[in-house]
């Protein structure tokens, strides 16, 4: 649609008007913020001047307390006011650069007046006219912009639906107060603008997409009906982007009750955390909490075990195929992450109510105060109807009683006597004072010596038995370690709780036990172990978190998802995933949607599918979509680039020569972010070693905390969720990528490319390439 010159002039005048007003507001706020800051500094400096401190009588003390409290309240009110003003100021400064990105003209049914709605990252009110010059993109009326093209349109408000007609939909790009371009749009939100946005080069940080949110993405962002929202989306379809906008939306909609720290994002790796960390601040919101599942496991189990991380497991799966026991481990990984095993663990807990419970003896000074046999007898002496957890609480009381009796029996023992000798003067003084308090007005007597000794003996025993009591109070007498082990040592018990044993179960048992005995917990055992522990001892919960977002949810086992549900009982969940990128060897929760959909039940679960891919050029999407089942449904965004290149070389020397030349040429052409993607960390280290001597690049490992722009070498599994201008696949040979489990890894690697994809191959290229239609890629063979 063409835009008249008069429109352009009018719009530019309006931009000046609005930025002028924002500028005035900024000046006022700057003065305000300065004044409040001075107040805060002043109050802090003179805090005690205005407080009357008098500790003489009880009344004086109360008065002092009141006066301090009053002063502290004044200070905290000023501090709060400072924070609010400073945050408004930074919001308006951002708004001044680019006050809005969209406009809709809307006439409500039954009304004459046409409303002009301008959308930006925050609202701006003309205070004199009481008129919104800019509407926040999250306001109810703003959804018109994302959901409709000109014509009949409606939006939801808290008091019901408002319908009418949209007469105009216009997009702007405004920088520093000038309209750079503007156009009126039809069906989708500005293909033109989206084209421009997507053709830019990638960044070391993810960007916000507010100006170009697509209709189906808007459904994810504004969905707040269901307890569980599952998003299955193709690579590059904007799942993560939509999820982050959703956080911003929820923070706006529920601003009275919801704070950023009540939302948690579970990321695939720490580097990804840093990649997405700027999106919310860019939108003027504080960041939500960010973590990884591994971080959580480490926190809970790291003191007791060396907990394997998913990346090490992945390295093993990809590199150890020739090692003995490989197939057994693979079978173990699949089983231990399955819904079957989850059920087996639950049934195991029920079985333990009847038999098989194991306890750690309450030991002290080399002997047992209570043996594990006595504990087991006690446990099974309770009425069978008493639930396991309640029995443990009863056990705890009983054990504390036993410890008390033991303590009493030891008071006159020689070892206590020796310990008393070792006490220091302060302890003696404490005992003496205590005795005086007991004896009160009585004169000192001959007995005092015995009484004081008695007090000292109690002190010694209490101190020595304290750790034991703490353990008992925390139910640590339940021997979770041996109970988990028992599943692999006692076949009768295992058969009693598991539906079917997986293939090569005996060997799985042997492997598991060997590892446990070394104090290690394999990644596939960590969540089941913790789950069993919490089933027995009670679940740790976090009730303040109201929203959990799980990115790359296809990589979570049913166990892990169940765990998150238990951990955050008052929370809603958004699970974002792509079946085609499930790269871990375990049975993915999303390989079949049942386990994840069953988490909160069908009535509380909604499912949204995104099929349009925005990241990569049409050529890259067309090439990669054939690699995965259902790939034909992926719709590329209409943006063209070069066809992917497959370059086959004879050996590693030729490989390195070609890649070095390629990187140099790409840099000259202006590609800022280039990734050399390898299959594993081991291969990445090799590639880095060979290439870094000839060209400047960085190596990314699982410990790399943040994502830097430039040329990076990294394993495919660490490239999850991120993107690059150009991707060079280090060695896409058939030797590297031919097994079924490598298919999705390869697909994930290829789909990281925004503009350019070059796949090198030492020898025969991967079958995942050669089975693609020949017209989707170009080949250069340098094999001679
Ligand atoms: N509506 C949109 N407007 C502009 N850019 C978009 C939009 N949706 C997605 N993008 C861009 O597409 C790219 C991919 O988005 P994102 O990383 O959110 O996808 P994803 O589905 O999480 O991908 P993957 O599963 O492959 O990691 C990003 O560069 C993002 O900015």
Automatic annotation (TrEMBL):
The residues that hold ATP are 233-240
Q: Which residues form the UvrD-like helicase ATP-binding domain?
A: 212-617
The record's keywords, sorted A to Z, are:
ATP-binding, Helicase, Hydrolase, Nucleotide-binding
User: The organism sits in which domain of life?
Assistant: Bacteria
Q: Which GO terms describe its cellular component?
A: cytosol
To which species is this protein native? Paenibacillus xerothermodurans
* Listed name of the protein: Helicase
Tell me yes or no: is RNA-binding among this UniProt entry's keywords: no
GO MF annotations for this entry?
3'-5' DNA helicase activity; ATP binding; DNA binding; hydrolase activity
SUPFAM superfamilies the UniProt entry points to: P-loop containing nucleoside triphosphate hydrolases
Query: One biological process GO term for this chain?
Result: recombinational repair
Among its keywords, does the record have Hydrolase?
A: yes
InterPro entries under this entry? DNA_helicase_UvrD/REP (IPR000212), HelD_bacillota (IPR048228), P-loop_NTPase (IPR027417), UvrD-like_ATP-bd (IPR014016), UvrD-like_helicase_C (IPR027785)
